[in-house]
Model the fold of this input.
Amino acid sequence: MFKKTNLVLLGGPGAGKGTLSAMLKESAPFLHISTGDMLRAEVKAGTELGKQSQSIMENGGLVSDEIITAMVAKVLQKDEKKYGMILDGYPRTLNQAKMLDELLLKLNRPLDAVIYLHGSDDFLIKRLTSRIMCRKCNRIYNQYAFPPQKTGVCDDCNGEIYQRDDDSEASARKRLLTFHAQTQPLIKFYKAQGLLIQISCDEREAVLAETIKKLN
Ligand code: AMP
Done:
């Protein structure tokens, strides 16, 4: 069904990009690139990039376009293009989107669709501040709606469940402001390219079905 489909997942913080990526990966193999996960891995490993990025992330800002694009380019250039790809959380600025266009042109790997997960600010804040995840495999849970079976332990890998530092209400609000200022312009950009698919993110169960229907 998703034979070599190349997707960008766009949406405010808490819209469910990570959850939708996981669901799509259950229906077909994909190369999944989550720039947020990559940066958190750098922070955890204590690299120079991790040290530089940590405070930016906690303050709801964005890491530089050049650094992020170089990170994504490194993965894409090495990839054998055996499967489709999901770009989750990248691009996040107009400049990144233009850099991505250039990169994909060089790699002869055009985008098939950009899925915009849309939700109101109140909804996103509520969801973000109740989100918890696994430190080991990055599986996402919600404290109230779908917690792990055993408190504090991941159902899949027994990893430790934690709340991201940037999911505090103060950070979440700043991330939302960043989304409106820097990422929202991408909606128009991709609409003009005829790639945009808008999906409402408030019905978790319906998001995958809706995405598949619209992609088809
Ligand atoms: P996420 O897990 O996608 O919510 O990303 C967490 C944080 O990592 C963001 O709030 C940004 O600080 C940073 N980040 C992730 N992706 C990008 C990107 N494409 N450009 C700049 N910063 C990013």
Residues 13, 35-36, 39, 56-57, 61-63, 68, 89-92, 96, 166, 175 surround adenosine monophosphate (CB under 6 Å). DSSP finds nine helices and eight strands in the chain.
